[in-house]
Amino acid sequence: MAPDQPMMLLVRKLQTRVPLDRSDVQAVLELPFTIHSYEAPAYLVREGTTALQQCSFIRTGFAIRQKLTVDGNRQIVGLCLPGDFVDLQHLFLNRADHNVQALTRLDAIDVDRAALQQLAQSRSNVGKALWIDSLIEASVHREWVLNIGRRDARQRIAHLLCEFVLRMRHAGLEQEASCEFPMTLEQLADAAGLTSVHVNRTLKALAGAGAIRRTKRSLTFTDWDQIRDIGDFSALYLHLEQGGPEGV
Amino acid sequence: MAPDQPMMLLVRKLQTRVPLDRSDVQAVLELPFTIHSYEAPAYLVREGTTALQQCSFIRTGFAIRQKLTVDGNRQIVGLCLPGDFVDLQHLFLNRADHNVQALTRLDAIDVDRAALQQLAQSRSNVGKALWIDSLIEASVHREWVLNIGRRDARQRIAHLLCEFVLRMRHAGLEQEASCEFPMTLEQLADAAGLTSVHVNRTLKALAGAGAIRRTKRSLTFTDWDQIRDIGDFSALYLHLEQGGPEGV
DNA sequence: CGTAATATTGACTCACTTCAATCAACGTGG
DNA sequence: CCACGTTGATTGAAGTGAGTCAATATTACG
């Protein structure tokens, strides 16, 4: 149970959803796991894969969920931050329905699927925490449908940036308003359902309005209230308070 | 366990995901429930609601999941067919993150939330079936993000129609190629991230190409292969075969 | 340094929206 | 049984946000 024990990351993640007792923690720490490193843009999961032996989560680095149309257009359907599960869906689904790709160099912790299944069904706190995690992911997907379907480019980009920053902050990975932003224009475009050319223009407009500042590889929020308003952002869909008492 | 027992619908639904043994079935049938009727466009769930006492599923009729932007634009983020859960997410989330609205007259079966939680965590087959259901829902959301983000109007509408028909068929509710289609142009538009004017033109084009036929209140698929090709539709994301053996 | 990604910018195009008018279907009450 | 109102469908004309194409600049990095 050393603090540098990789599985402590999982324990802490679960504890943001449901309080775990000592024996729960012990059981999680005893799960069989291996660690895997990937270089961008390696695939962690490929759509259609069926022999799924583990569920992974991210120790360091970033990944994206994406799907492709027949004509080769890519849509990013979700982001994976450090501490997030990459394929919790494979706990019970037998076929991958989308791709997961490394955005940066990343370390993933692969937990044995059968053992995690077993744990999820025998320890109700752990099961509940995992279940909540997958329910929140669905909620985020719904917000993305709204974002892409009914907001214009300016709002979409702003919303996406807000989600990124808030999730970073919630994961304890963001110090100030500024942060290293891991996505290129093209990736941002694929996440927003736009083109990189238009994302470039939109970011320039946001910077012109004073909402953000851009330097080579990082992104600063110079006016959080403004960008939140532009992006029509409300954090409710992230269910960040779920760890609290019932009915919050 | 009479065949007209409302909860048999839930049993059958769960059995499409995981085989249940006799005692599982018995336990499900013993869940406390009430039945509720709604007229369109009544709300079954309102975003932000916190005192969630039950999880509902649809006995007859149709509903939609939807969210609104500040400026009042509506986006439909999912469809609920007869036999589908309306708010399985409330099994463990304490706040509604979107609205659910009746599309037609509908009967819903409200299952006591605490009892269902209890069952989900004590009976692993039931728990697994419910969990799979919520994972599939997330998969459908991902496909919607792709559909709205990276397909043009023609493809989007075709894809949406394919999903509807396939889910109807899977629920055992569709006889032939034709079917009563419960959505207006405006609702179709809100589901596809388009305007009703453009949906009208797009449907007309699809009918002109011989892919569908439209009469007042119904929609016929005159050429399933064509509409599937137009919509870039592959049913993998619906995980319909999940009930089968592992690794299918 | 050289080379490949990524970012930037301008000019032009187009898919979809907006606005607005008309039409059809349907339920309802007198 | 029919006028009427309401909701949904249809069509045309005009506008626009975002895409496309293409050239150039910048950055990363071996």
Keywords:
homodimer; 248 residues; alpha+beta; three-stranded antiparallel β-sheet; 8 helices; 40% helix; globular; disordered C terminus; DNA-binding
Q: Can you walk me through this structure?
A:
- The structure is a homodimer of 248-residue chains.
- With 248 residues, the first copy, chain A, is an alpha+beta fold.
- Helix content of chain A is 40%, strand content 21%.
- The first copy, chain A, contains eight helices and ten strands.
- Chain A has helices spanning 7-15, 22-29, 113-122, 124-150, 153-170, 185-192, 196-208, 224-230; strands at 33-38, 43-45, 54-60, 63-68, 74-80, 99-102, 106-112, 178-180, 212-215, 218-221.
- Chain A has a four-stranded antiparallel sheet. A three-stranded antiparallel sheet of chain A has the order 1-7-3.
- In chain A, a hairpin with a 2-residue loop joins strand 9 and strand 10.
- The longest helix of chain A has 27 residues, at 124-150.
- Chain A is globular and about 55 Å long.
- The two termini of chain A are 32 Å apart.
- The model of chain A is unreliable at 244-248 (pLDDT under 50).
- Chain A binds a DNA duplex (30 and 30 nucleotides) through residues 152-153, 184-186, 194-198, 200-201, 204, 216-217.
Note the topology.
Two copies of one chain form a homodimer.
Chain A: H1 7-15, H2 22-29, E1 33-38, E2 43-45, E3 54-60, E4 63-68, E5 74-80, E6 99-102, E7 106-112, H3 113-122, H4 124-150, H5 153-170, E8 178-180, H6 185-192, H7 196-208, E9 212-215, E10 218-221, H8 224-230
The structure holds a DNA duplex (30 and 30 nucleotides).
